[in-house]
Amino acid sequence: MESALLGYFLEFGKSFLQIVATLLPIMNPPSGAAMFLSVTEGASAKTRHALANSISRNCFLMLIIFILLGSVVLKFFGISKDIVLIGGGLLVVKMGWGLVNADSSTPKHDEQLADSYTPEKIQQTAFFPLSFPMTVGPGTLAVCITVGASFAGSTVSITVARLLGGLLGIISLAIIVRVCYGYAEKLMDMLGETGAVVFLRIAAFILLCLGIQLIWNGMASAITELYHQMIIPLASSTNPPVAPPMPAPAAQ
Protein backbone atom coordinates (compact mmCIF):
# COMPACT_ATOMS: atom_id res chain seq x y z
CA MET A 1 0.00 0.00 0.00
CA GLU A 2 2.77 2.41 0.96
CA SER A 3 4.73 1.58 -2.18
CA ALA A 4 1.64 2.23 -4.31
CA LEU A 5 1.07 5.61 -2.65
CA LEU A 6 4.73 6.48 -3.14
CA GLY A 7 4.42 5.58 -6.82
CA TYR A 8 1.36 7.82 -7.22
CA PHE A 9 3.16 10.66 -5.44
CA LEU A 10 6.14 10.29 -7.76
CA GLU A 11 3.89 10.40 -10.81
CA PHE A 12 2.19 13.48 -9.34
CA GLY A 13 5.54 15.21 -8.81
CA LYS A 14 6.87 14.26 -12.24
CA SER A 15 3.85 15.70 -14.05
CA PHE A 16 4.00 18.88 -11.95
CA LEU A 17 7.69 19.41 -12.76
CA GLN A 18 7.10 18.51 -16.39
CA ILE A 19 4.44 21.19 -16.78
CA VAL A 20 6.40 23.91 -15.00
CA ALA A 21 9.80 23.13 -16.49
CA THR A 22 8.43 22.80 -20.02
CA LEU A 23 5.98 25.71 -20.21
CA LEU A 24 7.60 28.33 -17.96
CA PRO A 25 10.55 29.06 -20.31
CA ILE A 26 8.19 29.28 -23.29
CA MET A 27 5.68 31.57 -21.58
CA ASN A 28 8.46 33.63 -19.92
CA PRO A 29 6.22 35.82 -17.69
CA PRO A 30 8.96 38.38 -16.82
CA SER A 31 9.45 39.17 -20.50
CA GLY A 32 5.69 39.14 -20.97
CA ALA A 33 5.40 41.66 -18.14
CA ALA A 34 7.48 44.11 -20.17
CA MET A 35 5.18 43.61 -23.16
CA PHE A 36 2.15 43.95 -20.89
CA LEU A 37 3.45 47.25 -19.52
CA SER A 38 4.12 48.56 -23.01
CA VAL A 39 0.69 47.61 -24.36
CA THR A 40 -1.15 49.04 -21.33
CA GLU A 41 0.94 52.21 -21.03
CA GLY A 42 -1.06 54.95 -19.31
CA ALA A 43 -3.51 52.58 -17.62
CA SER A 44 -4.00 52.88 -13.87
CA ALA A 45 -2.64 50.35 -11.38
CA LYS A 46 -6.18 49.19 -10.64
CA THR A 47 -6.79 48.57 -14.34
CA ARG A 48 -3.55 46.62 -14.67
CA HIS A 49 -4.45 44.42 -11.71
CA ALA A 50 -7.87 43.76 -13.25
CA LEU A 51 -6.22 42.87 -16.54
CA ALA A 52 -3.69 40.65 -14.75
CA ASN A 53 -6.53 38.75 -13.06
CA SER A 54 -8.30 38.22 -16.37
CA ILE A 55 -5.11 37.18 -18.18
CA SER A 56 -4.10 34.65 -15.53
CA ARG A 57 -7.61 33.18 -15.58
CA ASN A 58 -7.61 32.99 -19.38
CA CYS A 59 -4.18 31.36 -19.40
CA PHE A 60 -5.29 28.77 -16.85
CA LEU A 61 -8.36 27.86 -18.91
CA MET A 62 -6.45 27.69 -22.20
CA LEU A 63 -3.75 25.44 -20.77
CA ILE A 64 -6.30 23.11 -19.18
CA ILE A 65 -8.39 22.86 -22.34
CA PHE A 66 -5.46 22.19 -24.65
CA ILE A 67 -3.89 19.64 -22.34
CA LEU A 68 -7.13 17.70 -22.01
CA LEU A 69 -8.81 18.30 -25.37
CA GLY A 70 -6.20 19.82 -27.68
CA SER A 71 -5.64 16.76 -29.84
CA VAL A 72 -9.38 16.10 -30.10
CA VAL A 73 -10.16 19.69 -31.17
CA LEU A 74 -7.46 19.75 -33.84
CA LYS A 75 -8.59 16.41 -35.25
CA PHE A 76 -12.24 17.53 -35.26
CA PHE A 77 -11.46 20.63 -37.36
CA GLY A 78 -8.80 18.88 -39.42
CA ILE A 79 -6.06 21.29 -38.32
CA SER A 80 -2.49 20.11 -37.97
CA LYS A 81 -0.01 21.31 -35.37
CA ASP A 82 2.08 22.81 -38.16
CA ILE A 83 -0.75 25.13 -39.20
CA VAL A 84 -1.23 26.17 -35.58
CA LEU A 85 2.46 27.11 -35.39
CA ILE A 86 2.38 29.05 -38.67
CA GLY A 87 -0.83 30.95 -37.91
CA GLY A 88 0.17 31.76 -34.37
CA GLY A 89 3.64 32.76 -35.51
CA LEU A 90 2.15 35.32 -37.89
CA LEU A 91 0.21 36.86 -35.00
CA VAL A 92 3.33 37.00 -32.83
CA VAL A 93 5.38 38.56 -35.64
CA LYS A 94 2.74 41.24 -36.17
CA MET A 95 2.72 42.13 -32.47
CA GLY A 96 6.51 42.05 -32.12
CA TRP A 97 7.02 44.20 -35.21
CA GLY A 98 4.59 46.80 -33.89
CA LEU A 99 6.32 46.95 -30.51
CA VAL A 100 9.81 47.12 -32.03
CA ASN A 101 8.79 50.09 -34.20
CA ALA A 102 6.82 51.85 -31.47
CA ASP A 103 7.87 55.50 -31.09
CA SER A 104 8.94 55.81 -27.45
CA SER A 105 9.86 59.48 -27.90
CA THR A 106 6.30 60.56 -28.57
CA PRO A 107 4.71 62.02 -25.43
CA LYS A 108 1.57 60.28 -24.34
CA HIS A 109 -1.23 61.67 -22.25
CA ASP A 110 -1.52 59.23 -19.36
CA GLU A 111 -4.88 60.51 -18.20
CA GLN A 112 -6.38 60.12 -21.66
CA LEU A 113 -4.95 56.62 -21.97
CA ALA A 114 -6.21 55.68 -18.53
CA ASP A 115 -9.69 56.94 -19.38
CA SER A 116 -9.67 54.87 -22.57
CA TYR A 117 -9.31 51.67 -20.52
CA THR A 118 -12.97 51.20 -19.81
CA PRO A 119 -14.37 47.87 -18.52
CA GLU A 120 -15.35 47.08 -22.12
CA LYS A 121 -11.79 47.74 -23.30
CA ILE A 122 -10.47 45.45 -20.56
CA GLN A 123 -12.76 42.64 -21.69
CA GLN A 124 -11.75 43.14 -25.32
CA THR A 125 -7.98 43.16 -24.77
CA ALA A 126 -7.72 40.70 -21.87
CA PHE A 127 -7.89 37.69 -24.17
CA PHE A 128 -6.47 39.03 -27.43
CA PRO A 129 -3.70 40.03 -27.62
CA LEU A 130 -2.71 39.98 -23.92
CA SER A 131 -3.61 36.37 -23.11
CA PHE A 132 -3.19 34.99 -26.63
CA PRO A 133 -0.71 35.12 -28.26
CA MET A 134 1.38 37.36 -25.97
CA THR A 135 1.30 35.14 -22.86
CA VAL A 136 0.13 31.75 -24.12
CA GLY A 137 1.23 31.50 -27.72
CA PRO A 138 0.92 28.76 -30.33
CA GLY A 139 4.19 27.20 -29.22
CA THR A 140 2.85 26.86 -25.68
CA LEU A 141 -0.40 25.32 -26.93
CA ALA A 142 1.45 22.87 -29.17
CA VAL A 143 3.57 21.77 -26.20
CA CYS A 144 0.40 21.42 -24.10
CA ILE A 145 -1.03 18.99 -26.64
CA THR A 146 2.15 16.92 -26.57
CA VAL A 147 2.41 16.94 -22.77
CA GLY A 148 -1.27 16.11 -22.38
CA ALA A 149 -0.84 13.00 -24.50
CA SER A 150 1.90 11.78 -22.13
CA PHE A 151 -0.41 11.89 -19.09
CA ALA A 152 -2.22 8.71 -20.08
CA GLY A 153 -1.00 5.94 -17.80
CA SER A 154 -1.33 2.19 -17.63
CA THR A 155 -4.01 2.49 -14.92
CA VAL A 156 -6.70 5.01 -14.07
CA SER A 157 -5.01 5.84 -10.74
CA ILE A 158 -1.73 6.76 -12.43
CA THR A 159 -3.55 8.88 -15.01
CA VAL A 160 -5.43 10.73 -12.26
CA ALA A 161 -2.21 11.31 -10.31
CA ARG A 162 -0.53 12.75 -13.40
CA LEU A 163 -3.51 14.97 -14.18
CA LEU A 164 -3.59 16.31 -10.63
CA GLY A 165 0.12 17.09 -10.80
CA GLY A 166 -0.38 18.84 -14.13
CA LEU A 167 -3.28 20.81 -12.67
CA LEU A 168 -1.11 22.04 -9.81
CA GLY A 169 1.58 23.01 -12.31
CA ILE A 170 -0.89 25.03 -14.38
CA ILE A 171 -2.17 26.78 -11.25
CA SER A 172 1.42 27.68 -10.36
CA LEU A 173 2.01 29.13 -13.84
CA ALA A 174 -1.18 31.19 -13.62
CA ILE A 175 -0.08 32.60 -10.25
CA ILE A 176 3.34 33.52 -11.67
CA VAL A 177 1.69 35.33 -14.58
CA ARG A 178 -0.64 37.16 -12.18
CA VAL A 179 2.24 38.38 -10.01
CA CYS A 180 4.50 39.40 -12.90
CA TYR A 181 1.76 41.28 -14.75
CA GLY A 182 0.11 42.79 -11.70
CA TYR A 183 3.41 44.24 -10.50
CA ALA A 184 4.97 44.84 -13.92
CA GLU A 185 5.42 48.55 -13.24
CA LYS A 186 7.37 47.87 -10.06
CA LEU A 187 9.52 45.35 -11.88
CA MET A 188 10.32 47.93 -14.54
CA ASP A 189 10.97 50.64 -11.93
CA MET A 190 13.77 48.47 -10.58
CA LEU A 191 15.46 48.79 -13.98
CA GLY A 192 15.09 52.57 -14.20
CA GLU A 193 13.71 54.57 -17.12
CA THR A 194 16.57 53.85 -19.53
CA GLY A 195 16.85 50.23 -18.47
CA ALA A 196 13.10 49.75 -18.89
CA VAL A 197 13.19 51.15 -22.44
CA VAL A 198 16.13 48.91 -23.35
CA PHE A 199 14.46 45.87 -21.79
CA LEU A 200 11.21 46.59 -23.64
CA ARG A 201 13.04 46.83 -26.97
CA ILE A 202 14.96 43.63 -26.35
CA ALA A 203 11.80 41.81 -25.25
CA ALA A 204 9.97 43.06 -28.36
CA PHE A 205 12.80 41.86 -30.59
CA ILE A 206 12.80 38.46 -28.88
CA LEU A 207 9.03 38.29 -29.40
CA LEU A 208 9.52 39.07 -33.10
CA CYS A 209 12.22 36.37 -33.40
CA LEU A 210 10.00 33.90 -31.56
CA GLY A 211 7.21 34.47 -34.08
CA ILE A 212 9.61 33.92 -36.98
CA GLN A 213 10.90 30.75 -35.30
CA LEU A 214 7.35 29.43 -34.91
CA ILE A 215 6.65 30.05 -38.60
CA TRP A 216 9.93 28.38 -39.54
CA ASN A 217 9.24 25.32 -37.39
CA GLY A 218 5.73 24.96 -38.77
CA MET A 219 6.83 25.31 -42.40
CA ALA A 220 9.80 22.98 -41.98
CA SER A 221 7.66 20.30 -40.38
CA ALA A 222 4.91 20.72 -43.00
CA ILE A 223 7.39 20.50 -45.91
CA THR A 224 9.03 17.43 -44.40
CA GLU A 225 5.67 15.72 -43.97
CA LEU A 226 4.67 16.65 -47.53
CA TYR A 227 7.93 15.19 -48.81
CA HIS A 228 7.31 11.89 -47.05
CA GLN A 229 3.72 11.77 -48.32
CA MET A 230 4.36 12.59 -51.97
CA ILE A 231 7.98 12.35 -53.07
CA ILE A 232 9.01 9.08 -51.45
CA PRO A 233 5.94 7.05 -52.63
CA LEU A 234 6.38 8.55 -56.14
CA ALA A 235 10.04 7.54 -56.23
CA SER A 236 9.24 4.01 -55.10
CA SER A 237 6.51 3.64 -57.76
CA THR A 238 8.71 4.84 -60.64
CA ASN A 239 11.57 2.57 -59.60
CA PRO A 240 10.03 -0.85 -58.89
CA PRO A 241 12.28 -3.39 -57.25
CA VAL A 242 14.22 -5.58 -59.68
CA ALA A 243 13.46 -9.27 -59.40
CA PRO A 244 16.46 -11.46 -58.62
CA PRO A 245 17.83 -13.44 -61.59
CA MET A 246 16.56 -16.96 -62.08
CA PRO A 247 19.09 -19.66 -61.27
CA ALA A 248 20.62 -21.42 -64.23
CA PRO A 249 19.23 -24.90 -65.00
CA ALA A 250 21.29 -27.74 -63.73
CA ALA A 251 23.43 -29.59 -66.26
CA GLN A 252 22.02 -32.89 -67.51
Automatic annotation (TrEMBL):
<dbReference type="InterPro" id="IPR002771">
    <property type="entry name" value="Multi_antbiot-R_MarC"/>
</dbReference>
<feature type="transmembrane region" description="Helical">
    <location>
        <begin position="16"/>
        <end position="39"/>
    </location>
</feature>
<keyword id="KW-0812">Transmembrane</keyword>
<feature type="transmembrane region" description="Helical">
    <location>
        <begin position="126"/>
        <end position="151"/>
    </location>
</feature>
<protein>
    <recommendedName>
        <fullName>UPF0056 membrane protein</fullName>
    </recommendedName>
</protein>
<feature type="transmembrane region" description="Helical">
    <location>
        <begin position="196"/>
        <end position="216"/>
    </location>
</feature>
<feature type="transmembrane region" description="Helical">
    <location>
        <begin position="59"/>
        <end position="77"/>
    </location>
</feature>
<keyword id="KW-0472">Membrane</keyword>
<dbReference type="GO" id="GO:0005886">
    <property type="term" value="C:plasma membrane"/>
</dbReference>
<comment type="similarity">
    <text>Belongs to the UPF0056 (MarC) family.</text>
</comment>
<keyword id="KW-1003">Cell membrane</keyword>
<dbReference type="Pfam" id="PF01914">
    <property type="entry name" value="MarC"/>
</dbReference>
<keyword id="KW-1133">Transmembrane helix</keyword>
<feature type="transmembrane region" description="Helical">
    <location>
        <begin position="163"/>
        <end position="184"/>
    </location>
</feature>
